[in-house]
Amino acid sequence: MNALPPPSKKSLAALASTMPEGTLLTADADMERYCKDWSGDHFGTPMAVARPQNTTEVSSLLRYCHEAGIPVVPQGGLTGLVGAAVAAPGGKELVVSLERMNKVRSINPIDFAMVVEAGCILEDAKRAAEASDCILPITFGAQGSCRIGGNVATNAGGFNVLRYGMTRDLVLGLEVVLSDGRIWNGLKTLRKDNRGYDIKQMFIGSEGTLGIVTAASFKLFPKPTQVETALVGLRSVEDAMTLYAKARRECSDLLTAFELILRVGIDIALKARPDFIDPLSEPYPVYVLIEASAGGRIDLAAILQDFLGDAGDLVQDGVLATSRAQAERLWLLRETLVESQGNGGRYLRTDVSVPISKLADFVADTLEALSEHHPEALAVTYGHVGDGNLHLNVIPPKGSTPDAMELLFHQTEEIIFDIVDRYGGSISAEHGIGRVKQQAYLDRIDEVTLDIASRLKDAFDPKHILSDGRILRPAALPGDR
Ligand SMILES: Cc1cc2nc3c(=O)[nH]c(=O)nc-3n(C[C@H](O)[C@H](O)[C@H](O)COP(=O)(O)OP(=O)(O)OC[C@H]3O[C@@H](n4cnc5c(N)ncnc54)[C@H](O)[C@@H]3O)c2cc1C
Questions:
Q1: pTM surpassing 0.90?
Q2: CB 237 within 8 A of CB 260
Q3: Span of 14-18, 306-310, 403-407 with lowest mean pLDDT
Q4: pLDDT given at position 446
Q5: DSSP 2
Q6: What are the φ/ψ torsions at residue 96 (nearest 5 degrees)?
Q7: Are 288 and 315 in contact (CB under 8 A)?
Q8: Which neighbouring-strand residues pair with 318?
Q9: Cα of 77 from ligand 1 centre, angstroms
């Protein structure tokens, strides 16, 4: 596979002429907001930004790019955390933003299904579902900015995976434009369909490398009429995991979230928001934010109250929210931690997973190794531990030079990933590979997996025009297969 030649000014002008006016942005000032992602760590230099309004426009755009050899990067809300949605340096990639394709096409509360365009902001899709007394259960901090196509392309998880699964478990069908411009219409809302291969699954989590998602249909669930939220203080991660298993069994599997936060995370949130008060009467090494929800004729508050009351000395102290506002304040603590941990600067983000049964040992081993080798850095640990998923982030000391930071990130990531390997875990449970984790991913996959992945890429995108260099190496570099 040879590298694609850079597109010429002539081909750009020809591309613009195939689209309605205003669809293609080429001025630096117009393109600025498509060049930087949420983390602020990744900046893109696109050759241009296309903003199609419908699937037909995406199709003609890709047909043209395929023929002309123009590399393309689909873009959603730019909240992805692996540098995949911004254009590569060099001004050779065309960003295709789906932001103008933002309609909810249909909701059917009897089918418990909705069809949404790829550029719809997740929160807008969730609101639309709620207006029909249903929920779309993909829930996380970036839901006010991320878009449905990005959620599908990253197989997004979040707080409620525990009960409802990842995006992969919630997608019923997809509409995708293939690299040569053909439209694959797999947009059905059937619950059961065993005809041949399940092609939609290839695109879910493919990070824009196999096709551009233009719409998705999702499973919906009845909107819970009762939601209970509690924050409890514990002695150790081990106790948190014992509490988790007990809660699943004793609360009729009604948990919708089980979030672990080590004390350092609470301190970060309290420092960032001096108006917050310490949530419990004294500090504890470990906190768990528990949410349970239900509809129908059960007394959920009594179930959770009894459960926490009977938890013996596992739970040192706790608060059960008595109002929606109080519950929101507890969640805000978690959100504030995520947003303020880097204090505006760079830090190492990880999103690893290990078997749930091994999580407590994994945390203990990793924190010990980090403090032994890098006592100068601050390790922040929190995550969706009901899914075995942890964010183990590393904040550099104040005043670190860029070079010192790079070295620290590299060394601490190696420490964390080596321990993940020892525990049979995954170096990415949520954010994907993109460009940031590519080397670590390629270092760990076996020959057969690499061969299958490379053949998939060749089959869906023979000219490698789609998000080349994300997940797998760019076509031009030797050694990618
Ligand atoms: C504060 C915060 C909290 C987060 N919490 C979580 C969490 O709990 N769980 C979790 O899983 N993630 C989380 N994330 C990561 C991120 O929000 C998700 O990965 C999200 O799904 C990305 O959506 P997006 O629209 O922003 O995609 P973008 O960042 O724009 O793109 C992400 C990837 O998808 C591709 N893509 C985008 N649109 C399309 C399309 N239409 N067709 C094909 N490919 C496309 C891009 O090329 C890129 O590879 C969090 C991020 C932030 C900033």
A1: yes
A2: yes
A3: 14-18
A4: 96
A5: P
A6: -110, 105
A7: no
A8: 232
A9: 7
Q: What are 448's two structure tokens?
A: 């057969």
Token duo for residue 386: 């009901």
Per-residue confidence (pLDDT) for residue 254, from 0 to 100: 94
Closest Cα to atom 17 of ligand 1: 79
Q: Is the pLDDT at 1 greater than 50, yes or no?
A: no
Q: Look-up: residue for tokens 């065309």?
A: 94
Query: What is the DSSP-derived secondary structure letter of residue 168?
Result: H
Nearest Cα neighbor of 188 from 167, 220, 148, 217 is 217
41 CA distance to ligand 1 middle (Å) = 15
3-state secondary structure of 470: coil
The residue with greater pLDDT, 15 or 456, is 456
What residues are in contact with ligand 1 under a 6 Å CB criterion?
38, 73-81, 84-85, 98, 118, 140-142, 146-147, 149-151, 153-154, 156-158, 207-208, 212-213, 338, 430-431, 467, 470
Residue 255 sits at the vertex; the CA angle it makes with 246 and 281, to the nearest 5 degrees, is 75
CA distances to 130, 240, 344, 356, 477 from 237, rounded to whole Å, are 35, 5, 28, 11, 44
Strands (E), 109-209: 113-117, 134-135, 171-177, 183-186
Ligand 1 centroid–CA 147 distance in Å is 7
In this predicted structure, what is the pLDDT of residue 479? Answer: 41
- The SS3 assignment for 245 reads helix
226-270: pLDDT as tens digits: 999 999 999 999 999 999 999 999 998 899 999 999 999 999 999
Phi, psi of 426 (to 5 degrees): -120, 140
Query: What is the rounded distance in angstroms from the CA atom of residue 87 to the CA atom of residue 76?
Result: 13
Q: Ligand 1, closest atom to CA 207?
A: 49
| H-helix or E-strand spanning residue 97 | strand 94-97
In the chain, the amino acid numbered 384 is: H
* pLDDT band with cut points at 50, 70 and 90 for residue 344: confident
